[in-house]
Amino acid sequence: MQRNIWCGLKLSAIIFILLLDLTCTRQIALLIIDVQNCFLPGGSLAVTEGDQVIPVINNIRSEYKADISLVVLSQDWHCSDHISFASQHKGAGQVIQLSYDKSGSLCDENNSCTEVAYNLTQHLWPDHCVINTPSANFSHNLTHEPSDLVVRKGYNCKVDSYSAFYDNGGFRHTELHDKLKEAGIDALIITGLARDYCVYYTAMASKTLGYETYVVLDATRPVTKETGDSAVADMKSKGNIKC
Length: 243
Ligand SMILES: *[C@@H]1O[C@H](CO)[C@@H](O)[C@H](O)[C@H]1NC(C)=O
Ligand SMILES: *[C@@H]1O[C@H](CO)[C@@H](O)[C@H](O)[C@H]1NC(C)=O
Ligand SMILES: *[C@@H]1O[C@H](CO)[C@@H](O)[C@H](O)[C@H]1NC(C)=O
Ligand SMILES: *[C@@H]1O[C@H](CO)[C@@H](O)[C@H](O)[C@H]1NC(C)=O
Ligand SMILES: [Zn+2]
Fold this sequence. Notes:
By secondary structure, the chain is α/β, with parallel strands linked by helices. It has a single domain (5-80, 127-239), classed as 3-Layer(aba) Sandwich (Rossmann fold). The chain is built from 5 helices and 8 strands. The strands form 2 sheets. Strands 1-8-7-2-3-6 form a 6-stranded parallel β-sheet. Strand 2, helix 2 and strand 3 form a beta-alpha-beta unit. The longest helix is centred in the last third of the chain and has 15 residues, at 225-239. It binds 2-acetamido-2-deoxy-beta-D-glucopyranose (4 copies) and zinc ion. Residues 29-239 form the Isochorismatase-like domain.
């Protein structure tokens, strides 16, 4: 079966498409990416209008409860001196290059790699979503049920993780793929923050891993319009999306 990323459709249209194909019974999971205080208005890395995704996501949950087998909330969960924090790189620009050895260990003053296996471009961010701080909590306004699966990412201090599936070097996977397979999930509806980073990387990973992938644009907001637009264009071209 062809696995596509569908993006920009209203959710009702997506559900219609899913239900239309009666020859293939799909198990659908709703993925809610990083709807945490740090990314909402008032947070240290606030996404403009980030709070406006919350009622849309809550509505998807309640309206399509019968069609959604599993709800997953991802949670950005960083060490207080995380490598992605600009505060850890005084004097650096907005973007730096990080080098890792073949085991995925950062090459720095404590690990002079004999051979660099990976260079990663790292965008530097304000301190955000630090482990066990209120900033890392999900918004109180987001519907959250005990049966939801919570997947934390970015807790390795030396490598960032935009995707909820694996870190930016692809060194280590989270439990997400295994849990989805266990639940027999084959289609993902992706929502949350931010459209141009964690939603985008999660959607691309989802497609790579073989899930039928849907991104609900009204349930996402970008950090900047430009990167948001290019993320959508990229998801469309690589995913053969019909919007
Ligand atoms: C290197 O190790 C020392 C001692 O453990 C530590 O204090 C320092 O922060 C480390 N440097 C980096 C860049 O991690
Ligand atoms: C990593 O970057 C360095 C310098 O920027 C370059 O010399 C090296 O070839 C790159 N290594 C890889 C694996 O891309
Ligand atoms: C943040 O979430 C944790 C775990 O769910 C909870 O114990 C704590 O009270 C929350 N903190 C705030 C400020 O809401
Ligand atoms: C939750 O929703 C209420 C009512 O819409 C709003 O006043 C409040 O600011 C929201 N809080 C958060 C944390 O989004
Ligand atoms: Zn982060």
